[in-house]
Every structure is written in C-alpha cells, then in structure tokens.
C-alpha cells in the first residue's frame, strides 16, 4: 500500500560510472540475505533470478554491485568501468 518511490542517480568517479538506485519502500527483512544468489526469493511467487541475473551481467562487464538496506531506504550501488580512449 502507498506510493512507490525509486530514485536513480549517476556519478562519474575515477575511471568508473557509479549508479545508485534508491528504493524508499520496504527494506530487506534480513540485511545479510543472499539476494544475489540464484533462486533466493522472499516473494511467494518469485523465481529468485532477477538480482542474480543483474549481478551476473554487471560482473561479466567487470563491474560490481552492492546493497545497503536500512529502515525506510535500500540503496543499490553499481560500479561500471569506463573504457578509456586508446
């Protein structure tokens, strides 16, 4: 119930692009939950593949993703390398 608020920001850091996706909805029930593992889901009808696929795509591109979940706010940070001109 209630509005869904998601905020997306992009920042340039040395040789990387950092994306932050902030969700102001419900937080992770267990902060150390293995949310990037295949088939892990907290939803009754979830497959548990969404974040596992996201993690795989990002790491295949030599990037990283992490999550910080606190009451009222969950932040996903994605770091992707920027190819420098030759």
Identify low-pLDDT runs: none
Helical coverage, percent range: 10-25%
SS-based structural class? mainly beta
**Can you count the beta strands?**
4
Order of helices and strands: EEHEE
Tell me, briefly, the overall form. Answer: globular
Strand content: 35-45%
**Number of helices, where a helix is a run of at least 4 consecutive DSSP H or I residues:** 1
- Spatially, the strands of the biggest sheet line up as 1-2-4-3
Terminal CA distance: 51 Å
Main sheet attributes: strand count, strand direction, barrel closure: 4 strands, antiparallel
Name the average pLDDT. Answer: 89
- Gyration radius over CA: 14 Å
Entry keywords:
86 residues; mainly beta; four-stranded antiparallel β-sheet; 13% helix
Explain this structure to me?
The mean pLDDT is 89. The longest helix has 11 residues, at 50-60. A four-stranded antiparallel beta sheet has the order 1-2-4-3, with helices on one face. It contains one helix and four strands. With 86 residues, it is mainly β.
